[in-house]
Amino acid sequence: MVSPGNEQNVNKRVCTKATNELSFDIELLADMTKDQLLKQARIFATQARNFQKLYNDAKQALEAEKQKLQQYKIAFAEKAFAALTSTARPQAGSYAAVVRGGRDENIPARSTLVVKIDQTDRDQPIDTKLMDNLLDSKNKGPVAQQVSRKDDKLYVTFADAVESARAQTIMESKAECKAIFKPIGTQVRMYPAIGLYADISDVRELENDIRFRNPCARDTLQKVIVTKRLKNGAGIETGLGHIKLLFNSAAARDRILNQNRMFTEGKAIRVVEVDANREVRRCYKCQKYGHTQQHCSDTVRCGHCAGQHSTGECRSGSKRCINCHGEHASGDRTCPEQVKEVRKYRLRFLE
Q1: 3-state secondary structure of 116
Q2: pLDDT over 80 at 188, yes or no
Q3: How many CA atoms lie within 13 A of 131 on its CB side?
């Protein structure tokens, strides 16, 4: 490894050797004939070439040492970064076990049962309390950890696949359950992240390439969905876009987020955490949560002032939320109902 002291020593050795070879008594030139002067000039020229060669060799040796030092620095930086972003499992019971990169991968994955709600009961509120009663959870029945709704489907999350299977058996056999909804199947829990400015000209090829070039995504990346197609100033699609990456492992998703990028054949894609405020499902017709306007039978309400007209037709200068009646637009990040829905989303998909 080269250092400032070593560099000075190299230069000193080269200069000393060159000076010794070039040393000559200048007074001798006065007594030389023309032929002797020409001969001495040729000697000087040869010595000058040797000096130049010594200088070039020393310069190359110095550059080689500098390159080695740069490689050592890069290797050290890579090891330091790997240590900082290591996702090794910490000791059980530590606070670090609940932060990103310290998830306990031995805990069984939660299982979500998907059921279709009967048309006549679509407006009936269904929560964990109702599910406890239907599944007889207080008397050793399966316990629902979370219940959420999306249009005419209900998503009931259990601690593991065994609990989910028990609940499905009860729903398919118990008359009270059959009267309200019908089990469709189980849903594998996905953990999302967002990829920015990806080449989306061939999404299937992109998905396969991500698995091929990123070991932590090889067996965990389940699906790639295009969320936005980017256009240029003329309104023409550029072939680039933003994508949602769905993983079946929280630890794998967190490793990708820690390194901030995924590699593809064309370029590295920057990966960021999902913005839960954008992911919350809210109807743009009635402004309520849990369904979309395609499945809404409620009255049209304005998302700006809560009036009985569409948001695009609003001319009011005041704001009012249809959900909490606060003085802000529906879906505002500070709205208590929005905060509640964001918390639900984070618990279900991000934590």
Answers
A1: strand
A2: no
A3: 21
